[in-house]
Design a protein that fits this description.
A hairpin with a 2-residue loop joins strand 4 and strand 5. It is built from twelve helices and 24 strands. The longest helix has 14 residues. The protein has a four-stranded mixed β-sheet. By secondary structure, it is α/β, with parallel strands linked by helices.
Length: 438
């Protein structure tokens, strides 16, 4: 798919997409919950669809339907589960890094051999932590030298272990969920150098909402406590997605004003920190009861005069914010510095290099210096043809920057957005952007 985004002024309101981080965790908890779970506001991105497929492969019954609430039809997903009882020899997590790292320990709760598969860039992403940890938990594992596909055979036996949290928090999420489901209160998971702590906050919030009791000490030690029996029917509402909404908020800051609805300001999602960056860039922000109103620059195109200022930001705990932050920084006067580049190497692309390459085509200079990225902003965005590198967030970042370019920006392989935010270009159109899809 090719998306051509033209310089456009935005206005109106848009509801943020459902959080795939929240949705995938809800699917995992629903599988582990013996009973019925009703998931409200379910997501429908590729990663969400992959999560639903995985829990079905692991034995859950899933039904999508609609209900009427306050005269409005709303989608729900009902999951009925008897625990992890795989119905086949394999499960496929698509291109979801969270999916593969979270569901593999959960799949190991079963006692049959199962092959863990993935697609796209996921087959090139390191999974060596499974080889390092699983044998100490009684899990047989046969991996492709730390890469997919991986064959495992449980059942997982909880034990006190030490986990390296410097690469990703996603494996820890899977362990926390699997341990919680075992109701073993005599074990401890110790974690070294944990990154992305807010994502663990989200995991704990989901577990505690369902009724499990998991506590931590300074994110270095996690323990499991007794809890009341879980309810036979649990209802869970998926949050609005701060990761996807970050692109809408930046779009509003440079080409709005618009109102973004459906976000929880008290959310534990890491990417809520986009608000900190926007404030540092001196964007116009008004918090209202039903949404966030975010303002804009004065003009579009080659004559654009930005009121936004360069800023400094540490994205170590929220690396998914790099792409929208680069789109923002490209418009800001001066040199913006973002820390945490080391967290980008094992994403859907090597995002530091990809952002540097594709934004150079738009006339934006990006320097990579150790763990820092410096974006030289303030010049107008050039009309160009860019490549998503099969990375959903790169496609969206280029789409946002195109709103204030001096001509159309053509994005190839733009279907990459389906991984997380299927309606991204449609939402831009609804806000008044001219977008041609080919």
């Amino acid at each position: 798919m090719i998306a051509i985004v033209y310089p456009s002024k935005l206005q109106g309101e848009q509801v943020a997409p459902a959080s795939k981080s929240s949705m995938q965790r809800a699917c995992a908890a629903a599988l582990l919950h013996i009973g019925k779970t009703i998931i409200h506001n379910p997501g429908h991105s590729n990663d969400d669809t992959a999560a639903i497929d995985v829990i079905q492969k692991l034995g859950a019954l899933v039904e999508a339907s609609e209900i009427v609430n306050n005269n409005t039809r709303q989608s729900i997903v009902t999951v009925t589960s008897k625990g992890v009882k795989p119905i086949g020899p394999a499960m496929n997590c698509g291109e979801s890094g969270l999916g593969i790292r979270m569901f593999t320990p959960i799949a190991a709760l079963g006692d049959q051999s199962i092959t863990i598969e993935g697609e796209g860039s996921l087959v090139k992403r390191p999974m060596h932590f499974f080889d390092e940890i699983f044998p100490s938990l009684g899990i047989q594992i046969n991996s492709n030298k730390g890469f997919l596909p991986i064959q495992i055979k449980g059942p997982l036996q909880p034990a006190s272990i030490i986990v390296d949290g410097s690469l990703s928090s996603q494996f820890l999420t899977g362990l926390l969920m699997a341990y919680a489901a075992r109701d073993n209160y005599d074990v401890e998971i110790k974690v070294l150098d944990l990154k992305s702590k807010p994502y663990i906050d989200l995991t704990l919030a989901v577990l505690n909402t369902f009724g499990w009791n998991v506590q931590h000490t300074n994110y270095e030690s996690f323990r499991f406590s007794e809890h009341a029996p879980l309810k036979s029917v649990i209802e869970y509402t998926v949050e609005g997605d701060w990761s996807g909404a970050a692109f809408l908020l930046v779009a509003g800051a440079i080409a709005g004003p618009i109102k973004v609805k459906g976000l929880q300001l008290a959310s534990t999602q890491a990417d809520k920190k986009i608000m900190t960056a926007l404030k540092s860039a001196q964007a116009s922000i008004t918090i209202q009861d039903d949404g966030i109103v975010i303002g804009s620059i004065t003009e579009l195109g080659a004559s654009a005069k930005s009121k936004l200022a360069a800023f400094n930001f540490d994205a170590t705990d929220c690396p998914d914010l790099f792409p929208p932050l680069v789109a923002l920084a490209a418009i800001c006067k001066g040199v913006t510095e973002i820390k945490g580049v080391s967290r980008l190497a094992h994403k859907e692309s090597d995002r530091g290099i990809t952002l540097q390459t594709e934004f150079a085509k738009l006339g934006v200079r990006i320097d990579l210096e150790g763990d820092s990225m410096k974006i030289h902003g303030g010049a107008f965005i050039q009309s160009a043809k860019v490549f998503s590198q099969h990375d959903h967030r790169i496609a969206m970042a280029c789409g946002v920057a195109a709103l204030v370019a001096n001509g159309p920006v053509e994005i190839t392989e733009a279907e990459a957005i389906n991984k997380s935010y299927t309606d991204f270009f449609t939402h831009l159109q609804q806000l008044g952007a001219k977008v041609d899809i080919q």
